[in-house]
Amino acid sequence: MGRSPCCEKAHTNKGAWTKEEDDRLIAYIRAHGEGCWRSLPKAAGLLRCGKSCRLRWINYLRPDLKRGNFTEEEDELIIKLHSLLGNKWSLIAGRLPGRTDNEIKNYWNTHIRRKLMNRGIDPATHRPINEPAAADVTTISFATAATKEEEEKVISGFSIKEEKSPVRECCPDLNLELRISPPYQNQSDQPLKTTSSILCFSCSLGIQNSEECSCGDGTSSSNTGYDFLGLKSGVLDYRSLEMK
DNA sequence: AATCTTTACAACCGCAACTAA
DNA sequence: TTTAGTTGCGGTTGTAAAGAT
């Protein structure tokens, strides 16, 4: 058995959207707003499934989309967010106004992955290629979050555990944990800040001039208490990681 | 000019999460 | 508490365009 399909596939168009379909969708959403995607196609006179309409609107037709090439700053922000959040494209997109999760995912797969490889960095782990697994890893664990809401709370409350050796839970082959670790850099010429400075989330992501900078002095390294991304001090505020 | 290969990205699919009855 | 319907997310695919041969 299984669940019924999300739409009547026999009577829906697939593939590229036509200008006329786009116009219909835009007109309908302008008039009625984003609402029930399930019923939207029929109401808008579109032979599309609701999911397809939603995707087309969110990824292509929404008026607030930025479009155009990614800037170098966006590149670096994506890399840093990915090192922190993994493939949580929607969360990453939430930090890049005008960009969609799909766009960022595509951009990651076509540009950034290669860019990191060229730098000798494994895009999956953000560690140097061929480097053995790290002995001490800081883990942000979502494993205890039963629901998405709880996961948000875990992010907000920053539930972190330090592992000297990874703990395998009941499903050893199913690793749902996000791991973060200090970004790769030449340790000899730029040692990590240890306990000598506090950085806000914006600064730790390298966007010191951001309005969200809350550490007072975006470029400061003179404050006290900090390490990568403000983990120890708790200065890093995941609550600013809004969902779309 | 023709063909093949690579790149970029829009769109689809399956599933998990959420919600309301 | 359960269940069915809906939404959102992430992985993957299809294909047009660009570049190489």
Automatic annotation (TrEMBL):
It comes from Camellia sinensis var. assamica. Residues 9-61, 62-112 form the Myb-like domain. Residues 9-61, 62-116 form the HTH myb-type domain. Keywords: DNA-binding, Nucleus, Repeat. Coiled coil: none annotated. One of its GO terms (molecular function) is DNA binding. Its main location: nucleus. One of its GO terms (cellular component) is nucleus. It is found in: Nucleus. InterPro entries: Homeodomain-like_sf, Myb_dom, Myb_TF_plants, SANT/Myb. The keyword Cytoplasm does not apply. CDD domains: SANT (cd00167). It holds the Pfam family Myb_DNA-binding. Transmembrane segments: none annotated. This is C2 repressor motif protein. The gene is MYB4A. PANTHER family: F14D16.11-RELATED (PTHR47994).
